[in-house]
Design brief:
2 domains; four-stranded antiparallel β-sheet; Sulfate adenylyltransferase; elongated; Arc Repressor Mutant, subunit A; alpha+beta; two-stranded antiparallel ribbon; 204 residues
């Protein structure tokens, strides 16, 4: 995942923002890599360089979504507690918006009412008609976020490809999100499990 504040999202999607600077100790992205940036989809990295702060230009600032170089440098200065001077090194990343990354819009909707919970439960029940698997899979992803699919499948004694196919079914319901490695429950998925858990406790 590559994080950006909300104020940069529109520029990233439109192509107005094509550069970002990061105060990393080592690069966290690679050229050609595709990184999720919720909720706008994925960003593709075109170039990664390590540069001195003094080499940052006004054009860099504009392409990064700032009005001036001074604003960009001040933003970088507040990103970490360590002092930042003109001789400090930062990473300059060129990137572009790479599409929605097959994201599911409802994955971010966590305000679920009784009707939403019932609808999701009904769809999961249909998926479980031949053999129950949804509850175990959701619980596994919740317990082991961003773990490789092959490792998750092994924990369930399943082959990797069929496991990934099933997780995609959960993703279409907005219950999970995919990452460069592994999965996480989406806000919608977490809300659903919390609601089902609360319902189960009331029955006891």
């Amino acid at each position: 995942m590559l994080l950006f504040q909300k104020r940069f999202h529109e520029g990233l999607v439109s192509g107005a923002v094509t550069v970002t600077f990061r105060r990393w100790d080592k690069p966290h992205v690679r050229v050609g890599g595709r990184y999720r940036c919720h909720p706008i989809g994925v960003l593709e990295v075109d170039r990664v360089d390590r540069v001195k702060v003094r080499d940052i230009t006004e054009t860099d600032a504009t392409r990064s979504g700032f009005g001036t170089r001074a604003e960009l440098v001040e933003y970088l200065r507040t990103a970490r507690d360590e002092a930042l001077d003109e001789d400090a090194s930062v990473f300059r990343i060129e990137l572009h918006h790479g599409g929605d990354g097959d994201r599911v819009e409802i994955a971010l909707e966590a305000d679920l009412g009784p009707a939403d919970i019932a609808a999701i439960a009904a769809k999961l029940a249909r998926m479980d008609a031949d053999e129950p698997w949804t509850k175990k899979t959701l619980a596994l992803i919740e317990k082991h976020p961003r773990v490789a699919a092959s490792q998750l499948a092994a924990k369930l004694g399943r082959e990797t490809l069929p496991f990934k196919v099933d997780v995609r079914k959960l993703k279409k319901l907005g219950l999970t999100q995919s990452f460069e490695v592994g999965y996480e429950l989406s806000p919608r998925g977490r809300a659903y499990l919390a609601a089902r858990g609360a319902k189960g406790r009331k029955k006891q």
